[in-house]
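This follows on from our talk about sequence and fold. I would like you to pick a protein and set down its sequence and fold. Go ahead and set the record down below:
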Amino acid sequence: MDVGKALEMFTLRMASKNLSESTVKNYYSQVNCFLSVFKHRPKAKEISAKEIEQYLLTKVQVNTRKHARCGIQAFYTLVICQPMKLQNIPWPKKEQKLVEYVTHGEALSLLRACSNIKHKAMIILMYGCGLRVSEVINLKPCHIDSSRMVINIIMGKGKKDRQVQLPESILILLRNYYKQYQPKGGYLFQGQFDPQYSERSINQFLKKYAELAGIKRNIHAHLLRHGYATSSLEMGTDIRIIQKLLGHNSIKTTLRYTHVSTTLISKTPSPLSHLVL
């Protein structure tokens, strides 16, 4: 099997389907690993569903197995023209894990430890507005609408546009940052040598500020977005408004935060709350 040609065709078909860049990278990586295992087979269509299922079972982590299945299924649909190849392979049961998030106190500690206004602006956009890290680095000055006090998220996850609130305090910070850095090249946040800041660089400075703030656990960008959702819920924001602001398709995704809010949990009355024991 010519793995290179198969992957080239797969990339072309994914582009034709207008899949997001992150999805293309993920599917490409998963299918590359899969085809490498079966590279001595003459044709991919001759790999049986049972062999594919046995390959998927080598993935110990459920999420990794799901990602592999999604990529392989897309490959057989778009390239091999066998869309039903995996139809009888069961989907692994989803693991129900508590969502990790940055607490309000931790977020404040990160901001106090940060003396760089560019880094502070990015932290605040993730924790204060609920932006994904990919949405922060894709922001352009024209997306900041001060006349309506909203931030326009263009082509977010799933290629969807949405708007989030722009508090006055965050607008002032962004204006001060812009005056100081005068970013050029189109993006609001430039890298040191590139026109666009990178996700890797954001996670690097978050780790540094977490250490300075005395936060012992691993802090990464997505925990700030989770912190925004949890704090909004604790302040009484309607769950459906949070859903729209986060850009979730399903309310079920947003409802995860009702299970992790320690404030809500601690305030939930017990049937024995008023009983003197």
Remarks:
- The chain has two domains: 3-78, 104-266.
